[in-house]
Amino acid sequence: MEVYNISTIKDVAKYTGLSIATISKYINGGNVLDENKKIIQEAIEVLDYKRNEMARGLKTNKTMTIGVLLPSLENIFFTSIVSIIEGILQEKGYGTIICDFKEDKELEHTKLEFLINKHVDGIIMVSYSGEKKHIQSLIDKKIPVILLDRMIKGLDCDIVIADNLNASYQAVEELIMRKHKRIGIICGPENTYTADERRKGYIRVHEDYNVDIDEELIKNADYTVVSGYTALIDLWNMDKRPSAVLVTNYEMTIGAIMAVNDLNITIPNQLSLIGFDNIQMARIVRPPLSIVEQPMKEIGETAANLMLKRLSDDYSDFPSTYRLKTKVHIKESVSTNI
């Protein structure tokens, strides 16, 4: 049988000749003399010392873990943000437990309870249910919660979101300025915050420019590839077709492009098209696809840094709402309507 020797903080103290208090102070990020830093780090490497986070958690009431709760790990928008969050938290010594509740409201509650039972120090989440009771109970216990992407009405909570209303407003405005009047939009599910905001932006820009709205041009899909495909076909099969279409998330954009290909629609001669979220995809498609770019990097950085601020017990600006600007990149998939 192979025996593994596990080094302890006492072994590090013995190696260095320093007190356990000094070693502990260094490990937990406190200030120690430079000469002591060097010898402690040397001892840690030589002895292959690993901090016992479970024991540390019992003493400090911290587990150095953050729960991340998402509706889908298949969604490139969410996974891109989580990758950024995880990197920043890791630099500060925090691990992450990532849970996917598969856009199931009951599973969302189950996974939230799972994270609570794991005694995570904070939770960064996208709520699909919009249920505020459980989240409020966490906030009341001073467990930091950062909401992403979707607000919950009546809940005082930190939130980091893209400016969804202006994202669609600006995209449709680009089309109206190019003389398009029949503009289709493929939205997400009704009563979903992001979809509702993007729909509002679509309606508001039509009102501001005195362009009539045909309700048949507003298609409510479900943020999946299949729903984007179906919605684009439905728009194209209308007696009075749109001259342009805005698709309001990445997966539905993929579906819409598949439909365009299957229907042999010529872009932009027969239809101008604006998609969402993926700049790399915009460069692959021919002609290059116009895209609404959400600030995924900035959302991830803001959420992670806000979580770290709350974990340091700084609630001076609570609750904070960060509504981050999007960008519209108009490429060859959009032309002037004649």
UniProtKB/TrEMBL annotation:
Coiled-coil segments: none
PROSITE patterns per record: HTH_LACI_2
Keyword line: DNA-binding, Repressor, Transcription, Transcription regulation
The keyword Transferase is assigned to this record: no
All residue ranges annotated as the HTH lacI-type domain in the record: 7-60
Keyword flag Repressor: yes
MF terms in GO: DNA-binding transcription factor activity; transcription cis-regulatory region binding
Matches recorded under InterPro entries: HTH_LacI, LacI/GalR-like_sensor, Lambda_DNA-bd_dom_sf, Peripla_BP_I
Pfam family, one: Peripla_BP_3
Signal sequence range: none
SUPFAM superfamilies reported in the protein's UniProt record: lambda repressor-like DNA-binding domains, Periplasmic binding protein-like I
Protein name: LacI family DNA-binding transcriptional regulator
Species for this entry: Vallitalea guaymasensis
